[in-house]
Specification:
Blueprint lengths: L3 H22 L4 H8 L5 H20 L12 H15 L5 H7 L5 H23 L9
Helix pairs in contact: 5-6
Length: 138
Amino acid sequence: MRTRGALLVANIITGLALGYTVANLGFGDYAELNRMFTFQDLRMFLAFAGAVAIIVVAFAVLRVRRTAGRLHAGVIPGAVLFGTGWALSGGCPAIPIIQVAGGYLPAVVTIAGIVVGVKLSRWANTRYFHLDSGSCTR
């Protein structure tokens, strides 16, 4: 039986392990990310490809089946904004936290940008777009 405390501890341990791994791989380094996005260094690309390969095998072993569906209207613009923000700031939402923990204080600006972006996205969706906030495959 899972308790809230046990789940919280498990999440903290998993988060610390992920942060440690990501930081030691160099994925928290802006220069490393820049080399990835300009295809000067394929190490990070290969790490992502390896992660996809592992999850494909895990899904096959666990027999996870997914039915094809229509893409959610927000997937493409969201992916473009996410990728653009990642390339400009040098971090997806988790990386700036790792950068701040490593002493790179300009990442605080990225974290502020993420918070403002989420708020603006919710406001724009409520006011203009009215996209379903559920599954991305509806």
